[in-house]
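Duplicate of #3305? Posting structure anyway:
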């Protein structure tokens, strides 16, 4: 990105570059940002002397795709509001590398194991993650994107969510829920769990009320999310919020209740 464009962005956001690298930095972006992603421009960097996971919108290397970084911030913000553990995330503009999301690197966290994921899937927290991903149309909830720190499960990586114009046909709410639960998760449900699922969906609907969503989307700087896109994003989010409980209950009726009927006979 050109310096002029970078300066314009810094001015638009009205904030100083919050991501200045340390004094040893050579000035070349590649020395500052160490790639960690395999598909997206996700890097490890030192930010204010601490390690951070940095995603870039205006800078990339090799075949990594640039990230719409506002999605990373919005995902973390909304997930935290509904009580999920997420690393602190902010948006920033770097004078050389441009628009970034900057997330605290969680030292000591590790990738969730397949066994842990199976155990977590139908807990209240697991259902919350599942329903949140349905809400934001996030089709990238793989073990890579769940960290374990002590007893806590941290949800990371929201940058393919919120793309409501481009939700692939194969990623319906039903598919997302089936993928999250797997066969084991679907079989683990008991008839009483229908209420738990609905309670979680209702809780998300209440915490992410229309005003909260509107205010949070409005808080994203114009340089990260132009007005035209902003309206579409909010509209998509509000529409999915209105349907979330129905999707959850329909999923139960169509895919879980039949299993219970089968087991009764
Ligand atoms: N906040 C974090 N703390 C520790 N490790 C992280 C953090 N965020 C990401 N990682 C690690 O970096 C990898 C890539 O980050 P991720 O957010 O998943 O980006 P991508 O969109 O490139 O998949 C993750 O799979 C995880 O191993
Ligand atoms: Mg990832």
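Output from current build:
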């Amino acid at each position: 990105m050109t310096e002029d464009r970078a300066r314009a962005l810094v001015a638009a956001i009205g904030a100083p570059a919050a991501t200045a690298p340390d004094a040893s930095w050579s000035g070349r972006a590649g020395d500052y940002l160490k790639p960690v992603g395999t598909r997206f421009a996700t890097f490890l960097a030192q930010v204010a002397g601490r390690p951070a996971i940095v995603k870039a919108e205006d800078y990339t290397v090799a075949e990594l795709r640039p990230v719409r970084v506002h999605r990373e911030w919005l995902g973390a913000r909304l997930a935290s509001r509904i009580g999920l553990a997420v690393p602190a995330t902010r948006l920033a503009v770097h004078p050389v590398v441009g628009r970034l999301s900057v997330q605290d690197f969680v030292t000591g966290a590790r990738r969730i194991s397949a066994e842990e994921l199976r155990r977590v899937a139908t807990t209240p927290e697991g259902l919350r993650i599942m329903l949140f991903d349905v809400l934001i149309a996030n089709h990238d909830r793989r073990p890579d994107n769940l960290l374990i720190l002590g007893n806590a499960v941290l949800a990371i990586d929201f940058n393919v969510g919120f793309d409501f114009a481009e939700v692939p046909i194969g990623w319906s709410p039903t598919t997302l829920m089936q993928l999250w639960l797997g066969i084991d998760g679907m079989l683990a449900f008991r008839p009483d769990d229908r209420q738990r699922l609905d309670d979680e969906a209702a809780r998300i609907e209440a915490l992410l009320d229309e005003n909260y969503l509107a205010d949070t989307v409005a808080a994203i700087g114009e340089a990260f999310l132009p007005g035209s896109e902003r309206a579409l994003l909010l509209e998509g989010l509000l529409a999915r919020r209105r349907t979330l409980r129905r999707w959850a209950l329909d999923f139960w009726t169509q895919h879980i209740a039949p299993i219970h009927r089968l087991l009764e006979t």
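Confirmed duplicate; merging threads. The CA atoms of residues 92 and 259 lie 49 Å apart. The first strand starts at residue 34 and ends at 35.
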